[in-house]
């Protein structure tokens, strides 16, 4: 046919091979689901090319388990309901259920699963002997009298091809892993990715001898993430010799992430104590890891005069792209005309500096000149930095910088942080600031358009209001899709809130905001009757959530506040009532416990179609009062939620 003439070419005329490649390139789940609705051919093609799947819903409704995703290689079973309970215990013959899962997903090589007891892994791992990547999830306590490492033995028994193991969200003791690793030398040798970070500040990290025994058995590790003990007052702390031996044990590492246990929490650091790590030893470690691409050393204890060691990163680790340093002092002097210290790492694309007490504006500007490829930058707890220095930094990196986090910096409140980001205002995509409003009145406010900002993260102290956010310069964000709000503080030290609402209604100025993470897990107060003159958590919860009924949110993750004295973290009546009035909400995930009759309030929301209660904090309670949600109450709530009498508009 001649060029320029019309044709009757239809989408169905595209060769199946090309169409299949097009489908394979699309990874966003909702987009793929929309594509599958076009026609039957596209439905079959989408199902046959899907590689990753997260299974939700109740494990009791086995007849609803899809059997058309036979090409899926990555399967996530960790969100099945009732959440947190043994996956296979709902059936009299759990082996049949495990076999049915294998029949539905025969190609699985990557698995995420909640493992409440060893039986789950014993049955599932034997169904997929070709598993290569496994992530285990468990927030509940260990089973009584369980032998050391018993949870992991079935996995190593049945999966000889295992190359990646992630137990970062798996509640276990640090003593569980080393003996299992040592007992299976062939699997240990084949491991290339090991994540043993612990997301709980109350859990001790791995001792020096434990970390070295693990790495000695895994010489081919490419990625290692571990929570360690850096405090020199503790037995088994990480020392110079530990780091040197680790580098010798695993010379092929491309990612090394070592963090102190408290680095996962929001506890303000102690800047007095020093770590037992010298800059000379660091230089030797870097020279032994030439393949490093990402390095995290968050030790929560001072490591002094580190600029000579960091200069070696540029020559000894030429492929380094991401660097995160916690409590490293003297990372860049910023006084010489040529760059020094970390400023010599010219290939860096991501840099995070935490609790560096001697980082000045001059040093920051020197880093911006040396690390001219930075697209992501985080600065936390650096109290010598000012708005002027940050403005110069972002101005020098205005062509590349799109992701910025500024937190716990004394001279950078909300307004000054936003003013310092003015050079990249029209480019930035992801942003975190602290909502410190102390000097917002009287300061010049730049009410301008943040056209590309899609993700916003905020930290705010308990008792403060969210309303000033739009006045600080963030009133016009047309592309904002997701917001995370972390509230922290002790309500027991606070008077009754002086305003009726925290200020969630002020978020209605963001027209495309559909997802929110409201994290009140750092809020402590009185769950039961408060003493005279104090306010209990139910009233604080009303204060935090008032106004959410006016939002246009589709998805909400809500971490409830806690009473540490009675070990209670639960949903109260005001929250249940307010969440039931959020008319656009489709997905709700409550991270805490709740009473059944309060959960039933949520059924009054006609748009809700996915609700889950997750006790995902260490350790999740096993002995709560009988009025809180159990398997039976979860099942009754889910049955009511999915009842045919509820019409959920799509």
UniProtKB/TrEMBL annotation:
CDD domains referenced in this protein's UniProt entry, alphabetically: F-box_AtTIR1-like (cd22159)
Domain COI1 F-box: 14-51
Domain of life, source organism: Eukaryota
One GO cellular component term: SCF ubiquitin ligase complex
Gene Ontology annotations of biological process type: SCF-dependent proteasomal ubiquitin-dependent protein catabolic process
Pfam families, per the entry: F-box_5
Protein name as catalogued: COI1 F-box domain-containing protein
Source organism of this protein record: Gossypium tomentosum (Hawaiian cotton)
């Amino acid at each position: 046919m001649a060029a320029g003439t019309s044709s009757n070419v239809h989408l169905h005329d595209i060769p199946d091979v090309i169409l299949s490649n097009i489908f394979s390139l699309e990874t966003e789940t909702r987009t793929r689901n929309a594509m599958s609705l076009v026609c039957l051919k596209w439905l079959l093609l989408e199902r046959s090319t899907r590689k990753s799947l997260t299974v939700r819903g109740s494990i009791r409704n086995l007849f609803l388990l899809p059997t058309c995703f036979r090409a899926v290689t990555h399967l996530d079973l960790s969100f099945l309901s009732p959440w947190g309970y043994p996956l296979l215990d709902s059936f009299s013959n759990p082996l049949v259920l495990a076999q049915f899962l294998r029949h539905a997903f025969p190609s699985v090589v990557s698995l995420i699963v909640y493992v409440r007891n060893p039986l789950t892994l014993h049955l599932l791992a034997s169904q997929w002997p070709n598993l290569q990547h496994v992530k285990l999830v468990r927030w509940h306590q260990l089973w009584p009298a369980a032998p050391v490492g018993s949870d992991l033995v079935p996995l190593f028994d049945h999966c000889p091809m295992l190359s990646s193991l992630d137990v970062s969200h798996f509640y276990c003791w640090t003593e569980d892993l080393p003996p299992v690793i040592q007992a299976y030398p062939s699997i240990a040798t084949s491991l290339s990715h090991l994540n043993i970070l612990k997301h709980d500040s109350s859990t001790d990290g791995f001792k020096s001898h434990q970390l070295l025994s693990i790495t000695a058995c895994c010489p081919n590790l490419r990625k290692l993430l571990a929570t360690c003990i850096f405090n020199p007052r503790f037995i088994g702390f990480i020392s110079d010799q530990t780091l040197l031996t680790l580098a010798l044990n695993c010379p092929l590492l491309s990612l090394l992430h070592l963090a102190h246990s408290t680095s996962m929490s929001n506890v303000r650091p102690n800047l007095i104590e020093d770590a037992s790590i010298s800059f000379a030893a660091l230089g030797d470690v870097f020279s032994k890891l030439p393949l490093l691409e990402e390095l995290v050393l968050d030790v929560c204890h001072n490591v002094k005069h580190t600029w000579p060691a960091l200069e070696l990163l540029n020559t000894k680790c030429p492929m380094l792209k991401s660097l995160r340093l916690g409590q490293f002092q003297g990372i860049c002097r910023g006084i010489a005309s040529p760059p020094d210290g970390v400023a010599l790492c010219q290939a860096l694309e991501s840099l995070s500096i935490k609790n560096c007490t001697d980082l000045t504006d001059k040093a920051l500007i020197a880093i911006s000149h040396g690390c001219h490829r930075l697209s992501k930058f985080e600065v936390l707890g650096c109290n010598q930095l000012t708005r002027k220095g940050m403005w110069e930094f972002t101005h020098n990196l205005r062509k590349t910088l799109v992701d910025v986090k500024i937190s716990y910096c004394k001279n950078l409140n909300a307004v000054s942080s936003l003013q310092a980001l003015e050079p990249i205002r029209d480019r930035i995509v992801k942003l975190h600031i602290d909502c410190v409003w102390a000097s917002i009145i009287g300061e010049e406010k730049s009410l301008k358009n943040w056209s590309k900002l899609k993700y916003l993260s905020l930290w705010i102290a308990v008792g403060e209001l969210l309303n000033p956010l739009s006045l600080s310069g963030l009133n016009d964000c047309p592309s904002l899709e997701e917001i995370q709000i972390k509230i922290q503080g002790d309500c027991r030290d606070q008077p009754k809130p002086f305003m009726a609402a925290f200020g969630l209604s002020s978020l209605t100025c963001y027209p495309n905001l559909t997802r929110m993470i409201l994290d009140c897990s750092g809020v402590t107060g009185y769950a039961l009757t408060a003493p005279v003159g104090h306010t209990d958590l139910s009233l604080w919860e009303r204060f935090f959530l008032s106004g959410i009924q006016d939002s246009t949110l589709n998805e909400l993750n809500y971490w409830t506040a806690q009473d540490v004295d009675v070990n209670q973290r639960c949903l109260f009546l005001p929250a249940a009532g307010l969440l039931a009035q959020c008319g656009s909400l489709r997905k709700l995930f409550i991270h805490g416990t709740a009473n059944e009759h309060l959960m039933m309030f949520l059924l009054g929301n006609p748009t809700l179609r996915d609700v889950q209660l997750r006790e995902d904090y260490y350790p999740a309670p096993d002995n709560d009062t009988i009025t809180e949600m159990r398997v039976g109450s979860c099942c009754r709530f889910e049955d009511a939620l999915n009842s045919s009498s509820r019409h959920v508009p799509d």
